Amino acid sequence: MCRFVIYKGTSPVLLSHLLTRPCHSIINQAFDSRLRLDKRRPMNGDGFGVGWYDSKYDEELGVQPCIFTSVTPAWNNVNLVRIAEKIKSPLVFGHVRATTAGSLSLDNCHPFVFGKLMWMHNGSIAEFDTIKRRLQSDLPDIAFDTVKGNTDSEWAFAVFLSKLPDSTAKSFTPLVLRKAMEATIAQLNVYRKQYNITEPSLLNFCVTDGESVVVTRYISSREDEAASLWFSSGTEFSEYGDGGHYKMTKSDKRENIIMDSLDPRPIFSSLTISAADWMEIRTNHMAIITPKMNLLQIPIIDEFYVPPSDPEALKRTKEFAQEKGLLNPRKALPPIQSDGQIDQQHPRRAPAGTHCC
């Protein structure tokens, strides 16, 4: 399984503060993840990628994100260290890979890009080889032709592109991205039924257009927990001690940084040192970060959704995700809304940054 990290902020962040300097950064997690219980793949050494958007619009550069990928292990790539010390961005995607589908190649390294859209996935589509040919045949040409590699993750991105009203649009509202994400998951579940696949799929997807971010924590099961997903917010994220120790601070009522983590460690988290800094996105929910830095948590209501108020929600088992090294229990996030609608009256506010890992 893979690891990813997302940062979104009103102020640009130096990439090294997310990727290389923290003692529990995503790079260190690539070879020393204390959540990794899947002994078949003890390291995320099958390549990595970083994607970012420019801090200021430049007509010559355009709106597309810049991507740097490599098939070398992230912890052993000197060029990553070099560029991370020289680049700042208000929106960063980072990903380290442990293959579940697809060969070791640059084309299979996340993030994947189409136009101004950027996509990552943590998890796996169950029995992907069984549904792959049918999935491909259902795609319009523009989505089919974007795929350069052979991972389940990139083909899922192609499905997502096919669900957008116009994948070449210059801008996308949060609602458009949300609906396309819901339709993508629904389509994958259609294939699951058609081919009688019983193993759950772990679908922690994330997509951004450089302005909004949509992240899912999802599993096609009513009995199992999904791979974990966490977030943190504050006014400032900074180094406070030697050895790469970082923390989130709140100096006023504004929440200037949001950070999401998929791999919070037993010593509290992947980047920050305090367990209190992190809150959990619920299983089979999506988190949306709007251009105005509102954080919305929305249930993905389908046959696998169990309302948090339902006693059955407490019976979800952790073994499936834990076997993949993708789950660690911690303090849960209170629901923001329970009817599946974006709560515009009580959004969670966070004007400055986001990170997922």
TrEMBL record:
Listed GO MF terms: omega peptidase activity
Record-linked SUPFAM superfamilies: N-terminal nucleophile aminohydrolases (Ntn hydrolases)
Assigned keywords, A-Z: Glutamine amidotransferase
Coiled-coil spans in chain: none
CDD domains in the cross-refs: YafJ
Gene Ontology process terms (BP): glutathione catabolic process
Pfam assignment, any one: GATase_4
Domain Glutamine amidotransferase type-2: 2-251
Signal peptide range in chain numbering: none
Gene Ontology terms: cellular component: cytoplasm; glutathione hydrolase complex
Region span, Disordered: 330-357
Protein name: Glucosamine 6-phosphate synthetase
UniProt organism field: Ephemerocybe angulata
Taxonomic lineage: Eukaryota, Fungi, Dikarya, Basidiomycota, Agaricomycotina
